[in-house]
């Protein structure tokens, strides 16, 4: 009887470990100038948004959404349009803002200066 109880405990612990190891993405590898994520484990099919740190903005046309996916037995973070955080332009437009609606590449900013 005691042996059986022990065995059940061992098996329960074993299955628990398998369940934890399966279908979980770890902390994503972040690019420079992004806010660290709070959790260290994310379920498959979970999407999160990575934010740029203070003073940086998301480059137009890049996506800050990443998704934990499972493919061919591996689990990894996936993104269609990898996020790029670029320095917020220090140039303030006094007129319509036609040329400066948001963020610029460093090169473009230097050119405007
Ligand atoms: C990024 O900002 C959005 C909107 O404010 C927020 O919902 C999200 O949790 C943030 N992401 C991280 C990783 O902090
Ligand atoms: C994740 O989504 C795919 C496709 O939408 C689905 O086939 C799969 O079962 C989902 N996995 C989990 C763990 O929810």
Automatic annotation (TrEMBL):
Signal as a keyword of this entry, yes or no, is yes
This entry's Gene Ontology molecular function terms read:
interleukin-15 receptor activity
Tell me the disulfide pairings in this chain: 25-68
Task: Supply the Gene3D superfamilies for this chain.
Answer: 2.20.28.230
Among PROSITE patterns, the record links this protein to: SUSHI
Keyword Signal in the entry? The reply is: yes
**What keywords are annotated for this sequence in UniProt?**
Disulfide bond, Signal, Sushi
So which residues are the signal peptide here?
1-21
Sushi domain residues: 23-87
Which PANTHER family does UniProt cross-reference here?
INTERLEUKIN-15 RECEPTOR SUBUNIT ALPHA
- Protein name (database record): Sushi domain-containing protein
Q: Which lineage?
A: Eukaryota, Metazoa, Chordata, Craniata, Vertebrata
